[in-house]
Amino acid sequence: MRERSVPGQPPGAVSLVRPVQTLVPDGSALRRVVVGEVVVPDLVVVARDFDGNLVPDAVVVFEIHRNTSNGQFPGGSSTEPATTKGDGKATAPTLTADDEVGGFTVHVTAQDGPGATDFTITVYSDPPPQPRVETLTPSGAGGTREVPAGGAVYPDLAVIAQDFNGNPVPDADVKFTVRPGTSSGSFPGPHPTACATTDDDGEATAPHLTADNGVGGFTVHVTPANGPAAFDFTVTVEEERA
């Protein structure tokens, strides 16, 4: 671990923080936004150390890199720090696109350690047309999850979008909606809904989902912005393990 000064604390105050080996986006690294509007969802990264453990209290820096257009954080800033919480996640301040069509990236680096990642933001003059999605199927771990009360649902919920011919559909927006049952859960915010965009393989991954403290279960309904597809994840919430 390395010592670093603590922002807002007296000179000489230090905090022992494990170096951040990896930074990865929480959910999709792609965002699409109309000129002059706020980028949603917020940019969130997850920090892990060399052994794959979550790293709390680590400072990360979000830096806007102009390409064919640009954006800004509050006050017109192009660079903003954030600190990871107990779940290893750090959230950037609100990001707004400038009044220019094109795109830019947000490069994220760890203050301590080699961890780095990028978000790609595409800026449109009007809401972009959505590709049609005929089917949504679960990716990776399937359509069911078991989680202790109050715990994080793992692995993250992910779906594959396909067209009429079974080909993957990239750049499609999908929405994840928590439907409470005998218990419930929420995405970061907390919010009952979250959006993600499919990558080149047609896969969209939801931000981290956390179960409430009640035992029981709920579902997460997934739908595309365009097309008849739908899928439901089933989440069973068990008593917190000792």
Folded structure, characterized:
- The protein is mainly β.
- The protein is built from no helices and 22 strands.
- A five-stranded mixed sheet has the order 4-12-11-6-8, with no helix packed on it. The chain has a five-stranded mixed sheet with strand order 14-22-21-16-18, with no helix packed on it. A three-stranded antiparallel sheet has the order 3-5-9, with no helix packed on it.
- The protein is globular.
Give, in spatial order, the strands making up the sheet with the most strands: 4-12-11-6-8
What low-confidence regions span 5 or more consecutive residues with pLDDT below 50? 5-9
Distance between the termini: 29 Å
Global geometry: globular
The helix content, as a percent range, equals under 10%
Order of helical and strand elements: EEEEEEEEEEEEEEEEEEEEEE
Tally of DSSP β-strands: 22
State the secondary-structure class.
Answer: mainly beta
Q: Would you tell me the overall average pLDDT?
A: 91
Oligomer: single chain
Continuous helix count: 0
Radius of gyration: 19 Å
Relative strand content: over 45%
Summarize the biggest pleated sheet: 5 strands, mixed
